Amino acid sequence: MCRALLADCRQLWRLRELLAVLARRELGARTAGSAGGWLWVWLPPLLTTAAYFLLFDVVFGMRLGAAAPTARVGTFLVVGMLAWSAFADATQRGMMSLLEAGGLLHKNPLPPALFPARAVLASGVVFAPLLLALLPLYMGAHQWRAGVWALLPLLLLQGLLSFLLAYLLAILAAALRDVVQGVQLLLSLGVFLSPVLFPLTLFPERWRWLLWLNPMTAPVLGYQAALLQGQWPPPAVWLALAAWIGLLALLLSLAVARSRDQLVDWL
Amino acid sequence: MNAPVAHAAALPLRLVGVGKEYRLYDSPRARLKALLTGRALPRSHWALQDVSLELARGQCLGVVGHNGAGKSTLLKLICGTLQPSQGRVERSGRVTAILELGAGFHPDFTGRQNLYFGGSLIGISHPQMAELEASVLAFAEIGEAIDRPVKTYSSGMVVRLAFALVTALEPDLLIIDEALAVGDQHFQKKCIERIQSFRDHGCTILFCSHSPYHVRHLCDVALWLDHGRMMEFGSTEAVLGAYEKHSRLLGGERAETAAAPLPYERGPDSALILSCDIADLGDGDPPTLHSPDLVATITVRGKGAERPNIGFMIEQERGVGITSLATHEEDAAPTEVEPGVWRSTLTFPDLPLHSGDYVISVFLFDETGLVTYDLWFQFKVIRIVSPTLMPGLVRLPHRWS
User: Fold this and answer.
1) Closest Cα to residue A132, out of A195, A226, A52?
2) Which of B83, B106, B125 lies at the smallest CB-CB distance from A29?
3) H or E element: which one contains B358?
4) I need a labelling partner for A112 at 20 to 30 A (CA). Which of A102, A230, B10, B138 fits?
5) A178 and B28: CB-CB below 8 Å?
């Protein structure tokens, strides 16, 4: 059953140069005709991040409880929000990618997997440098403890998670357009059902399992451990990430196999 | 049902039992249910069934059929944009498809940016495109506009650039959907010449058209599709003969077999039909021919110094073709009456048609007869009153004994 997905992955690797061209073009298309160019791609998340620091840490000086991975609210929020924004951006754009590429796919013999991969790669180009830029900013808190390097595998795994989910949702959206609205609703609610806005320990213990239904809970906890405490994320984070990736890969394989000869007809 | 193939090895195209099924669901919800559970039962529509054929290097296949016959589906399966539900599509070498030119261009990007991006979509890498760029730009005749956003281009400029891009590399298999030539008359000739040069170099061509005229002139084999099934496959004349007979029996669908009435260029320098005078026409609506002979004098303006060709067609009022004639088919070149203006007089002595109303069309072709510069399609109806009282359409040459 996974053969269909593996075939897609092989094609993505074979067409990696085209994938890079498509991702560059997607970013270029967002700012085509503007004088600022790519600056406009990075400016919004950069300003949001700066606003969190200024508002919560400098202006209000808000502090979290002792059980939180850091006392500063702004510092805490930035880590989760950047990771969540990257995930939401990649998922939404990836979900829409096949519907938007319908015209191209009807005229060019290209594998559909290219388009969600392009969207996720483009989101990665925007958000991964911002998350990496937090490394030197946060190192003062824990003097570069070895755990900070968990950021790199976490970024890669989040990229993989986003691709699998975005591709699955793109196929579902091609079959039924209502999926787009449903997912947008879930993404706006999802940020409250994850440890992005509050530490995990503040969530009522008996409802805490609910947070693990959110695929971003594990990566966010991982980023918080690595960046805020310099600690290697606990096994539960890696296990949850592996479980989500495995589940999504299975569902995606099923969807790819069932839609293979009809997907372009639906676009 | 296979046409003879010269070399069985390294065939540019081989279709084995190819079929395409469209699964039709009652609602998008049913489609999602089928995707999630694999259990919803769709209605099945086979757009193409059991198509098997082989094309050798250098062969040109014309695909004909009415709307909905499966022509576009076949082309998309061969291009690889659709996946077959049954059978195998085997291609070898570079495949180029001329379909909806310029549709993938981004209006905010410059022509050059679109050129490189479009190239990457059809397998031309950046360094390769850098080598080809000069020849593509020269062919497209875009000039300095290449660095302007495509949204500032005319539709002609877009298709010129797109045609130059997709034909930048010589293909092994060229797929042409209907539009044989694009842009203005000058560029149309360049398109035809490029396609002909590909053919001369051994490129296999698959040409899908409603125009039997072009299929006859270009193709050495033809495929007639009807409701997704192969009706005939073989030599062009035999297949088109069977197809046209079938079309005539269908009657109402006859219009599809005519040359598509495209918008023809009528600029100050365009090649065009200037006049078609029919001698001895009386008054009335339609006018009656008061002569046993039908004499038509057709005057046209050519393209530069090129000698054009003229075509003439008579149909019965309901669109049943009676005769089509063209100067290039009979080595009867028009005469230049003044610089750039050409004239032919066509005479049917003792016109052997029975009484009835007949429809006249006039064509203006280029020197090769492949580019249609202008068309006055069914522009005049004339009434013929024949002395015979016997039923029929035409008085054939005959002898009683």
Assistant:
1) A226
2) B106
3) strand B356-365
4) B10
5) yes
Residues B82 and B215 occupy one common structural domain: yes
What's the confidence (pLDDT) of residue B56?
A: 85
What is the rounded CA–CA span in Å between residue A217 and residue A196?
Answer: 8
Contact state of A33 with B108 under an 8 Å Cβ cutoff: yes
Strand order in the sheet with B221-226: B95-98, B173-177, B204-208, B60-64, B221-226, B229-235
Q: For an interface test with A, which of B81, B99, B128, B147 has the most A Cβ atoms less than 10 Å from its Cβ?
A: B81
When scoring B18, B26, B32 by the number of chain A Cβ atoms within 10 A, the one with the most, hence best to mutate, is B32
Hey, what amino acid is at B397? P
pLDDT digits (tens, 9 = 90+) for A24-79: 888 888 887 777 777 888 888 888 888 888 887 777 777 777 676 776 778 888 88
- The rounded distance, in Å, linking the Cα atoms of B34 and A112 is 20
B316 and B216 co-located in one domain:
no
The answer as to whether B37 is a domain residue is yes
Looking at per-residue pLDDT, the higher value among A240 and B31 belongs to A240
Structural domain that includes position B324: 272-384
Do B286 and B368 share a domain, yes or no? yes
Listed as ranges, residues in chain B with pLDDT below 50 are: 1-8, 252-260
Q: Which burial class, exposed, middle or buried, applies to B6 when counting CB atoms under 10 A from its CB (0-12, 13-18, 19+)? A: exposed
C-alpha span between B361 and B228 (Å, rounded): 32
Angle subtended at Cα B71 by Cα B156 and Cα A100, rounded to the nearest 5 degrees: 60
Q: Are B282 and B375 within one domain?
A: yes
Is residue B42 within 8 A of residue A175, CB to CB? The reply is: no
φ and ψ at A19, to 5 degrees? -60, -40
pLDDT for position B122: 84
The Cα B292–Cα A254 span in angstroms is 75
CATH code, domain with B40 = 3.40.50.300
Chain A residues whose CB is inside 8 A of the B34 CB are 175, 258
The token pair at A112 is 């559909």
**Residue of B38, B103, B117 lying closest to A21 (CB–CB):** B117
Residue with tokens 């339609």: B286
Residues of chain B in contact with residue A264, where contact means CB-CB under 8 angstroms, are 81-83
The alpha-carbon gap from B184 to the nearest alpha carbon of chain A, in Å, equals 24
What's the domain count of chain B? 2
Closest to B177 in 3D by CA, of B98, B232, B82, B266: B98
pLDDT beyond 60 at A264: yes
Q: How many CB pairs under 8 A join A and B?
A: 76
Taken in order B57, B60, B66, B68, is the CA torsion positive or negative?
positive
Selected residue with higher pLDDT from A229 and B261: A229
Residues B280 and B377 placed together within one structural domain of the fold: yes
What pLDDT, on the 0 to 100 scale, is given for residue B7?
45
Whether B90 and B206 share a structural domain: yes
Residues of chain A above pLDDT 70, percent: 96
For the cut 50, the answer to whether the pLDDT of residue A8 exceeds it is yes
DSSP A68: S
The angle, 0 to 180 degrees and rounded to 10, between the axes of the packed helices A114-142 and A151-175 is 150
Are B238 and B362 part of one and the same domain?
no
Burial class (CB in 10 A: 0-12, 13-18, 19+), B391: exposed
Q: What is the pLDDT of residues B252-262, one digit of tens each?
A: 444 444 444 55
Interface membership of A28 toward B (CB under 8 Å): yes
ipTM of the complex model: 0.71
Q: Tell which A residues from 71 to 110 touch B, by Cβ distance under 8 Å.
A: 103-110
